[in-house]
DNA sequence: ATATTAATGAGACTTAATCTCAATAAAATA
DNA sequence: TATTTTATTGAGATTAAGTCTCATTAATAT
């Protein structure tokens, strides 16, 4: 309870601080979108955020949702996740717990994984090619335990 | 010269064999599309294949290009590559030389890499979660040597 | 040579995402 | 606090990748 409240306050401050740093305005819409993205740990897409906010009675535009999500991604408050279904998904960027994804091609469920060795090997590959990594995409597609 | 010729013949036979195995027809259009995809090692997209064939005077439909590429991917003659620019790319599936990609976010160039350790670690992750891997996506995004 | 039926072409349609522009509302300033 | 400035917004038009439909065509089986 208290923890959740703190979490929300802290992340609203993170939003405000980021926007100020960039000279952008701390608007009602940006707060609502950020809040919505923070309200669950699922991998949400822009259309879904848009419709959720509309259902809740907020008179928000689709364009605002897309524009705000862009701002959040560019400022590393959100990570963009592409599971190859033609729709970008977004999740809170937990700076100290990076992870990649397993995607079940039967039921669509998304599982997370993290492996330090793979991260290290990626860095070595980049170093060898004198390539400066900014971010990466790593998904394993297949059939999950339940679907087999 | 001889090698290239053999390569084309072999891969046309691969196409024919795959189509027969699936009870599909060996049509002029499928031959042309496969040939076009084989004619360069670049990472091609469907629209580009479509326009290239039209420019060459072939009266082919966009739908046929997309449908044929689907068939080729499903039968593992092509690998689908998604570098996150909203367009699917395709490349000849070299069964004995699997690779993943480094993508320069400045110039768009695509570099290939292969790392057996990463492949093995992926298998371990899947095993731990009792997940049956079918394929994977692995891209490192960043700035290439030339662009730095 | 003919019959069967999968594949094709044309273009309408879908869907995610972007763009435009007049109206609005944060934030800066007085 | 009232006013000014200018970024942001909403509505909906637009774009772009990809899919769908259906009458026609052409591979393959007979």
Overview features:
2 domains; globular; Arc Repressor Mutant, subunit A; three-stranded mixed β-sheet; DNA-binding; 6 strands; three-stranded antiparallel β-sheet; 148 residues; alpha+beta; 22% strand; homodimer; Dna Ligase, domain 1
Sum this structure up briefly.
The structure is a homodimer of 148-residue chains. The first copy, chain A, is 45% helix and 22% strand.
Structure description:
The structure is a homodimer of 148-residue chains. In chain A, the strands form two sheets. Chain A has a three-stranded antiparallel beta sheet with strand order 1-3-2. A three-stranded mixed beta sheet of chain A has the order 5-4-6, covered by helices on one side. By secondary structure, chain A is α+β, with helices and mostly antiparallel strands. The longest helix of chain A is centred in the N-terminal third of the chain and has 20 residues, at 2-21. Chain A folds into two domains: 2-92, Winged helix-like DNA-binding domain superfamily/Winged helix DNA-binding domain (Arc Repressor Mutant, subunit A); 100-147, 2-Layer Sandwich (Dna Ligase, domain 1), CATH 3.30.1490. The first copy, chain A, has helices at 2-21, 28-38, 46-55, 62-74, 116-128, and strands spanning 44-45, 78-82, 88-92, 100-104, 110-113, 132-143. The termini of chain A are far apart. The model of chain A has no long low-confidence stretch (mean pLDDT 91). Chain A binds chain B through residues 80, 82, 84, 102, 104-105, 111, 113, 115, 117-118, 121-122, 125-126, 129-145, 148, and chain B through 80, 82, 84, 102, 104-105, 111, 113, 115, 117-118, 121-122, 125-126, 129-145, 148. Strand 6 of chain A pairs antiparallel with strand 6 (132-143) of chain B. Chain A binds a DNA duplex (30 and 30 nucleotides) through residues 23-30, 45-47, 59-64, 66-67, 86-88.
């Amino acid at each position: 309870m208290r923890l959740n409240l703190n979490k929300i306050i802290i992340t609203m401050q993170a939003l405000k601080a980021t926007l100020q740093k960039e000279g952008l305005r701390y608007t009602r819409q940006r707060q609502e979108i950020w809040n919505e993205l923070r309200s669950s740990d699922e991998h949400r897409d822009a259309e879904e955020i848009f419709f959720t906010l509309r259902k809740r009675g907020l008179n928000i535009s689709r364009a605002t949702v897309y524009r705000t999500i862009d701002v959040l991604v560019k400022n590393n408050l959100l990570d963009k996740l592409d599971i190859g279904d033609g729709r970008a998904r977004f999740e809170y960027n937990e700076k100290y717990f990076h992870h990649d994804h397993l995607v079940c091609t039967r039921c669509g469920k998304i599982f997370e994984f993290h492996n330090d060795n793979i991260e290290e090997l990626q860095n070595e590959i980049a170093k060898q090619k004198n390539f400066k990594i900014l971010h990466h995409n790593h998904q394993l597609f297949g059939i999950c335990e339940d679907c087999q």
